[in-house]
Amino acid sequence: MISRSELKGPSVHKYQVCKSGLESKKNPIGLATYKVPDFPVNVSLESLIAEGKITLCSNQSRINVGVATCGRAAGAMDIYNNLEKRDWCGAVRVFKVGCIGACYAEPLVHIRTPEGKHYFYGNVDMSIFWHIIKTAEEKPGTKTLPFLWAITQESKTGILRGIQDMELIKVQNSGFRDFFQPQVRRISGRCGLIDPENIAEFAAMGGFGALEKALFRLKRKQIIDIIRTSGLRGRGGAGFPTGDKMNIAYENADLVRYVIANADEGDPGAYMDRVLLESDPFSVLEGMMITALAIGASQGYIYVRHEYPMAVHALKKAINCAHKVGFLGNNVLGSSFSFDITLVESGGAFICGEETAMLQIMGGKRGEPQLRPPYPVRQGFQNHPTVINNIETLANIPWIILNGAEAYRELGTPKSPGTKIFCLAGDIKRMGFIEVPLGTSTKVLIEKIGAGDKESIKALQIGGPSGGIVPYKDFSLDYETVESAGAIIGSGGLVTLNKKRCMVDIARHMVNFMASESCGKCSICRGGLLELEARLLTLTSGKGYPSILTEIEALSKAISSISLCGFGKTAATPVTTTLTYFRDEYEAHVNGKCPAVFCKPLINFEIVLPCRECHACHSVCPSGAVKRRTDKNERLVVDSKLCIKCWACYEACPFDRIRIVSEELHGKDDRNHS
Amino acid sequence: MEKMIEIIVDGNSLAVTPTIIVLQALQEHDIDIPALCYHQALGGSGNCGMCMVEVWNTNSWEPRHACLLPVKDGLIIKTATPRLKLLRNWAAKVLLRHRPFNNIRVEELLAKQIQDEMQSQEDEWLEGSIKKLADNWSDGCVLCGLCIKICSKVGKNRLTYLRRGKKLCISLVRGQDDNASCGNCRACSHICPTGFITPNPQQTFTEILI
Ligand SMILES: Cc1cc2nc3c(=O)[nH]c(=O)nc-3n(C[C@H](O)[C@H](O)[C@H](O)COP(=O)(O)O)c2cc1C
Ligand code: SF4
After folding, report:
1. Average pLDDT value over all residues in chain A
2. Which ligand number lies closest to the CA of residue B65?
3. How far is residue A397's CA from residue A187's CA, in Å, rounded to a whole number?
């Protein structure tokens, strides 16, 4: 049993790299150093829960250091190593956990004391180690520290099912409260509280309860009906009803079926799949198992991009661990259901996340989307019915099974029920990973959670590069409203753009990304996007001509009508939406002006009087463009021929006497506003 | 003899065999539809985008590729609407960027689809920036992929696309020596619509897989 399960660990990709299959079987790669806790095979859920409670809610203090990718980038490993090194005399244990979502505050450290109090510390550095140590060791007199962000108390000491089970008792950092208060952590509640590699802690936090219910108390058809009535919609982009998809596979005459989890998250600005996989991989496995049980699949695949090394690592460990305790493999939990999961590492291109391209890659071919129909749910992997779901969609399933469809519909709007994870990025203060009910207003997300400055925000980019850019106003974030505005919720990336950003340049940037990522099969998607990029470049370099906007419009239409797959059909959306909402900016560019004073070829720097002649600009200018005028009164001027528009003088001037103008003094220096 | 079905093209009803695609049906009835990347033996691929037709779909006209659309009884299509002209105009423009072609007839065919030629000065600037943006631009090849398909069908299956997006190119997977890499059947140079593959694939496709 054990030797067999060990073979499941390495991904297909790794096997392929090996010269022969035999070799790889002798030497399972990447597993040499891995030791799972020594559970007897086929442990019961109860004993797993008991085991998990020992570490999770023990009478020892527990320090959690968030070491997901975001934490590591902020130096969390140093903090972890230092805390771990310390001799705690058995009073405290230090754990590596995932991310609770407050990515702006990394590194994050969180302490649970035996009486069920949780202390949160954000932006941790070595200087506050002493306070962390004292809190963990429960020395009195250390409770009112300026570095402490919040204290929460478990509603019932010893029972913790997620971050929503805690009551706030004290907040020192109001931003922390604003960040968390509007959120509802249904599916990401465990993230950052449990050790992602420990299956027992997952079980102790309510994990696998749904699987047990589905296995022993529900019929397969019932599971599908619950998902259907819950109204869960796919979180991967298109928003297709998940229950309907399961039902199509369930009713297919072909009895060989597959489940594939799509973790090829390619949208710049979206990272919810990564956070879920790094912080709570078992919930995804549980969702997959329930889906497989419902549709009758016995083999699943997780397709994950190799640019997510930590997610791959977490998944490998999770799959191994689940095998060892009998939650994967033959006769899951002693039932008649057998299921196995294989990891497939992808090359990581945006187009490879498209389901048909993904199936091509899994078949060993080039990642080219195929014409649909046939849809994968009818004829997918190896021509068998295949349910392909996004990671977040799968993570929703256990919650729905456990709590029922009605409870799920309590939040959200009638057509878009439930909660959705969004990733906030761009020109806001608090970036991160948040979960809110669908239909929450943008005002709450951007101004309250993200602490964006209302006055300075110009636009929102929703749904990644193939989503849309819409003007910032207060609207409800649900599938219908966002679609009617011309964008899509997509995977849930939400990039805030402020008034300093030039919309034409942003559109150019997006089209550049799409043109580089197209698979290139359709000449209109490959070449047409290139034409489009060249035209936008024409605008941002001040070479516009009168008919260019009609050309851009017609070209965008041609790209979306002729392209074969969803990529090409949506690739021009950033252009069409900006052209609808920010047409004046485009028109200004045709006349050689950039209202946001951003496009370098269209702006000039000027020194305005009274200048104090401090020569700060002169000394920083790298190209010698700031000169003393020789003819009249010898004042300093910027020679526009030499100027490379690096903004150095603007930033150096202590008296704000540098003005940026875009031809004919249009839109004077918007940079001052923010 | 198979039973014929009926499709309606531009208001005229045509009797066609049920197993073919719309493009074949149109060609059989001498309705002129430009198509570059289609070959009867290889089926449609939807690559060049020239063969667009409009199909009546319950309540609206939808642009579709004639080379990928199987015929169906009662299918209603249009082959020359202003919208289709515009779509073909852009598809042709994109392909014509790869000018000059060795096969002058293709150039003429595409040029016929262009509705509005831009003022030459602006076009020059655009052309320059497009070639700069796509950093390995090949004149004469429209990357339609017919050679790859035919090589996998009748040849040694040695041709492939390399990279993606702006950097897409076609490459020959070389063996130890020239004999091992290509069977010299010249199928690719016969099928190439633009006449790019001369004198042989070994000398044409120099890009190598690293
Ligand atoms: C260009 C393109 C990229 C896509 N990328 C992803 C992706 O990264 N992750 C994902 O889950 N779905 C992606 N999709 C959507 C998938 O094709 C598919 O619809 C989805 O995985 C279905 O899962 P769902 O029903 O849970 O949404 C992409 C689609 C397109 C057209
Ligand atoms: S639309 Fe673009 S990405 Fe999709 S198949 Fe065509 S070339 Fe590839």
Report:
1. 86
2. 2
3. 9
Q: How confident is the model at residue A399 (pLDDT cuts 50, 70, 90)?
A: very high
Residue nearest to atom 6 of ligand 2 (CA): A522
Angstroms from A351 CA to nearest CA on chain B: 10
- The size of chain A, in residues, is 674
* pTM of the complete model: 0.88
* Banded pLDDT at A9 (limits 50, 70, 90): very low
Pocket of ligand 1 contains residue A201 by CB under 6 Å: no
Q: What is the pLDDT of residue A19?
A: 37
Q: Is the pLDDT of residue A368 over 60?
A: yes
CATH topology of domain A419-498: Ubiquitin-like (UB roll) (3.10.20)
Q: Would you identify the CATH topology of the domain A45-180?
A: Glutaredoxin (3.40.30)
Q: How far apart are CA A467 and CA A405, in angstroms?
A: 29
Q: Could you report the predicted ipTM of this complex, rounded to two decimals?
A: 0.94
Of B63, B90, B126, the CB nearest to A528: B90
pLDDT tens profile A628-658: 877 767 778 888 888 898 888 888 888 888 8
Domain A503-590 classified CATH 2.40.160.60? Answer: no
Residue of A349, A521, A531 with shortest CB distance to B130 = A531
Q: Is the pLDDT of residue A83 over 70?
A: yes
Q: What span, in angstroms and rounded, lies between the C-alpha atoms of A661 and A668? A: 6
With b for 16 or more beta-carbon neighbours within 10 A and e for fewer, the A446-483 pattern comes to bbbbbbbbeebbbbbbbbbbbbbbbbbeebebbbebbe
Q: How far apart are alpha carbons B60 and B73 in whole angstroms?
A: 18
pLDDT band at A354 (very low <50, low <70, confident <90, very high): very high
Q: How far does residue A273's CA lie from ligand 1's centre (Å)?
A: 12
Ligand 1 in contact with A388 (CB < 6 A)? Answer: yes
The span from the CA of A412 to the CA of A381, in Å, is 33
Centre of ligand 2 from the C-alpha of residue A275, in Å: 29
Backbone angles phi, psi at A290, to 5 degrees: -65, -40
Give how far A488 is from chain B: nearest CA, Å: 22
Confidence check: pLDDT of A58 > 60: yes
Quickly tell me which residue has 């070799």 as its tokens. A23
Residue A229: the pLDDT is 95
Q: What is the domain partition of chain A in residue ranges?
A: 4-24+206-407, 45-180, 419-498, 503-590, 603-670
- C-beta atoms of B68 and A371 within 8 A: yes
The residue-averaged pLDDT of A350-374 equals 91
Q: What is the DSSP secondary structure assignment for residue A640, as one 8-state letter?
A: T
- Our answer on whether the CB atom of A570 is closer than 6 Å to any ligand 2 atom is no
Interface check B65 vs A, CB under 8 A: yes
Span B28-45, mean pLDDT?
Answer: 89
What's A4-24+206-407's CATH class?
alpha beta
Minimal CA–CA distance to A126: which of A63, A83, A172?
A83
Tell which CATH architecture fits domain A603-670. 2-Layer Sandwich (3.30)
Q: Say whether B46 and A557 touch across the interface (CB within 8 A).
A: no
Average pLDDT over residues A78-96: 89
Q: pLDDT by residue (tens digit) across B89-135?
A: 999 999 999 988 998 999 999 998 888 776 677 788 888 888 888 87
**Would you give the distance in Å from CA A332 to the centre of its chain?**
31
Residue B72 burial (10 A CB sphere; 0-12, 13-18, 19+): exposed
Distances (CA, A) of A427 to A28, A497, A500, A510: 45, 6, 10, 17
Q: Which two tokens stand for residue A659?
A: 């003005």
pLDDT of residue A2: 43
